[in-house]
């Protein structure tokens, strides 16, 4: 007669594992002594050892019951099936490792590599880390809201950064974060930026203009950061609207 502790020591498992096997129905419950303790016999040693061999080999507990007493041919078939499942899991894990490795070597794991390159370019211009972080967050937002347009906008942004006038405007906008809302420099930046935009504005994209909610999310993303930026964005929107209104009244001025 063996106690649960003695059985665990003989087979090389824990008492907790034995209780778990009882709960799953893999190991039959033994008779109990008058004091209420489990009393194990030699057959329990045999059955528990079989379970241990299978679990040590990586067989899922859900499959152990069908293999413990299986005939040799059935055992081979089941083992082959489990092997195929394990190979599939290994392939998935290896793919996950490869994906993690690719992310680890990128400067920004959540965004396309082109964003990292542009960030390096902007950092070299003297753009603040605060604005660079906001840019990364903004690209994440765009990536979620307009996944089909990310590539187009990345190419557009890169082309804009190649223009020295735009680079100067971008740096001035970065500095405007700390301006009060009534700073006269905001009007200068807004006027110069809108003038540049009217000359270099890319063709409108249907998916962008058709999704009003997404448009509001992106357009309003920066406005809440500082009074200076909020006023700058508002003034730029006013100037763009005024320009569009004039163009509608006199198409020849477009």
Automatic annotation (TrEMBL):
<feature type="domain" description="HTH merR-type">
    <location>
        <begin position="1"/>
        <end position="70"/>
    </location>
</feature>
<keyword id="KW-0238">DNA-binding</keyword>
<dbReference type="InterPro" id="IPR047057">
    <property type="entry name" value="MerR_fam"/>
</dbReference>
<dbReference type="GO" id="GO:0003677">
    <property type="term" value="F:DNA binding"/>
</dbReference>
<dbReference type="InterPro" id="IPR000551">
    <property type="entry name" value="MerR-type_HTH_dom"/>
</dbReference>
<protein>
    <submittedName>
        <fullName>Transcriptional regulator, MerR family</fullName>
    </submittedName>
</protein>
<dbReference type="Pfam" id="PF13411">
    <property type="entry name" value="MerR_1"/>
</dbReference>
<dbReference type="InterPro" id="IPR009061">
    <property type="entry name" value="DNA-bd_dom_put_sf"/>
</dbReference>
<dbReference type="GO" id="GO:0003700">
    <property type="term" value="F:DNA-binding transcription factor activity"/>
</dbReference>
């Amino acid at each position: 007669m063996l106690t649960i502790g003695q059985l665990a020591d003989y087979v090389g498992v824990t008492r907790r594992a034995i209780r778990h096997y009882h709960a799953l129905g893999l190991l039959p419950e033994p008779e109990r002594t008058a004091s209420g303790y489990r009393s194990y016999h030699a057959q329990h040693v045999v059955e528990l050892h079989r379970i241990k061999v299978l679990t040590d080999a990586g067989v899922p507990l859900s499959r152990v019951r069908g293999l413990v007493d299986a005939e040799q041919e059935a055992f081979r078939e089941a083992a082959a099936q489990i092997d195929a499942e394990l190979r599939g899991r290994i392939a998935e894990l290896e793919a996950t490792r490869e994906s993690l490795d690719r992310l680890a070597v990128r400067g920004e794991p959540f965004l396309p590599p082109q964003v990292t390159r542009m960030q390096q370019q902007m950092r070299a211009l003297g753009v603040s880390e605060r604005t660079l972080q906001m840019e990364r967050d903004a690209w994440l937002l765009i990536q979620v809201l307009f996944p089909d347009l990310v590539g187009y906008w990345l190419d557009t942004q890169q082309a804009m950064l190649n223009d020295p006038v735009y680079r100067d405007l971008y740096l001035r906008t970065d500095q405007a974060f700390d301006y009060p809302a009534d700073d006269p420099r905001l009007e200068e930046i807004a006027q110069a930026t809108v003038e540049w935009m009217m000359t270099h504005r890319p063709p409108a994209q249907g998916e962008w203009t058709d999704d009003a909610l997404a448009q509001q999310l992106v357009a309003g993303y920066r406005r809440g950061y500082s009074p200076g930026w909020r006023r700058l964005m508002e003034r730029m929107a006013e100037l763009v609207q005024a320009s569009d209104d004039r163009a509608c009244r006199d198409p020849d001025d477009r």
